[in-house]
Amino acid sequence: MTWNIEPTHSSIDFTVRHMGFSNVRGRFENFSANLETDADNKPVSATVTIDASSINTNVEDRDNHLRSADFFDVENHPNITFQSTSITDLGGNNYRVDGDLTIRGTTNPFSIELETSGEAVKSPFGMMVAAANGAGSLNRKDYGLTWNQVLEAGGVLVSDTVKFSFDFELIQAD
Predict the structure, then answer these.
(1) Diameter of the chain measured on Cα atoms
(2) Can you list the domains of the chain with their CATH numbers?
(3) E strands of 52-143, at which residues?
(4) pLDDT means over runs of 10, the chain (174 residues)
(5) How many C-beta atoms surround the C-beta of residue 50 within 10 A?
(6) How far apart are CA 27 and CA 12, in angstroms?
(7) How many CA atoms are closer than 13 Å to the CA of 154, on its beta-carbon side?
């Protein structure tokens, strides 16, 4: 079965340490995802595409800098993509999803733990609905996002570690 994301009830959020002691939070506004499941409703493949230009930290100047060649270079690399290569059942409704994550034209193997809602439910509008969520972290330098600034007191302006989370509501397509 194919499940497509329902964007109005889904989110992709991130947090990056700023100046070593505070957090900057943001999200991506535009993305798509689908999940393929087997006859037992267990995931067998997943694909996510994020419009990198849709980054939103609620500070326009910072968002424009993140879109620039210093970071995402959205003019040349408009999308962040993930394509699963395998999914391992960890028991219950938990899975490890291994795949290829591409950011700024650099692709690396990437794994994330995923929790699904298990059973799908029928919405008041007659559609079958399920959910998936997860969280993790990555090193931004692994994807060519190397811009930084050394602080006078020591340390750097932007952490290398980016923490993220996602919550997807999925609608059965077939």
Answers:
(1) 59
(2) 2-172 (2.40.128.110)
(3) 55-56, 79-91, 94-103, 106-116, 121-122, 128-139
(4) 91 82 89 90 92 95 92 95 96 94 95 87 86 90 76 67 91 84
(5) 22
(6) 6
(7) 0
Tokens of 164: 């993220």
Q: Distance between CA 109 and CA 168 in Å, rounded?
A: 22
Residue appearing with tokens 């939070």 = 25
| Residue 50, both tokens | 């994020």
Q: How far apart are CA 112 and CA 166, in angstroms?
A: 11
* Residue 117 burial by Cβ neighbours in a 10 Å radius (0-12, 13-18, 19+): middle
Q: Residue 64: helix, strand or coil by DSSP?
A: helix
Paired tokens of 127: 């559609």
Long-range contacts of 160-164 (CB under 8 A, 24+ apart): 161/16, 161/17, 161/137, 162/14, 162/15, 162/16, 162/137, 162/138, 163/14, 163/15, 163/16, 163/135, 163/136, 163/137, 164/12, 164/13, 164/14, 164/15, 164/135, 164/136, 164/137, 164/138
What does residue 148 show for φ and ψ, rounded to 5 degrees?
-165, 175
